[in-house]
Amino acid sequence: MSTQTERAAKVPSQRLSILFRGIIKENPVLVSVLGICPTLAVSTQVSSALGMGIATTFVLIGSNTMISLIRKIIPDKVRIPCYIVFNAGFVTLIKMIIEAYAFPLYQALGIFLPLITVNCIIFARAEIFARKNSVINSALDGFAMGAGFTLALLATATIREIIGSGSWLGIKLPVLTDLNIPIMTMAPGGFVVFGLLMAIMNKVLKGRANRREIGCMGCLSAAICGRSACGELSAGKQEGTE
After folding, report:
1. Can you tell me whether residue 168 is helix, strand or coil?
2. C-beta of residue 148 within 8 angstroms of C-beta of residue 29
3. What is the rounded average pLDDT of the residues 187-198?
4. pTM of the full structure
5. Sign, Cα dihedral of 205, 207, 17, 63
6. Which residues, at least 6 apart from 220, have a Cβ–Cβ distance to it below 8 Å?
7. What is the separation of C-alpha 113 from the centre of its chain, rounded to a whole number of angstroms?
8. Among 125, 127, 121, 137, which Cα is nearest to 16's?
């Protein structure tokens, strides 16, 4: 009885830990450095960044939930194609919703909306977390990672839109409208802001960002290489220590 009580007491703290990891400690963009292409591409406007963040969060929650539900019956050899099928289904659904009810956003996101299907954040969470954890925790992880991705997008877009366009969420800002720096809406400006935000995050975490080695179980290429690359790496490490 006491064991069950202890387990029940640990559940809230475990789920808070999942939220904290996704938003701060293992932020997919600013710590794990995943999903950089859409981050830089759609972060010139806050509205586009918010739309991409919400769409990706929806797919993350749906994909993590489905993969966790059937994780025990998916053969290892076809798990990657299964992930793609789930991702594509949820992306198609959110794409149709955005096209129907927010057509300007649909046009602004362009090709990056269907490309959510192969977003490395979604594949990483499916492989590292969803296939090993319960449905509720997997859905929570999807939400946390999506929230972290959305916040990183919003922070990048806010800086770039205010400095580059003199506006925020399409609203013109006094003075800044005439004193903007257009290069901030281009690729160089995106990299500058991204680098600054990564430096700030590193400072906040005091250099203690997530650095654990995932190994073969968390590597998306393990099924292709037959884990030979990891074997060669381990052999190289052993030779180096001798």
Report:
1. strand
2. yes
3. 93
4. 0.81
5. positive
6. 80, 123, 124, 127
7. 14
8. 137
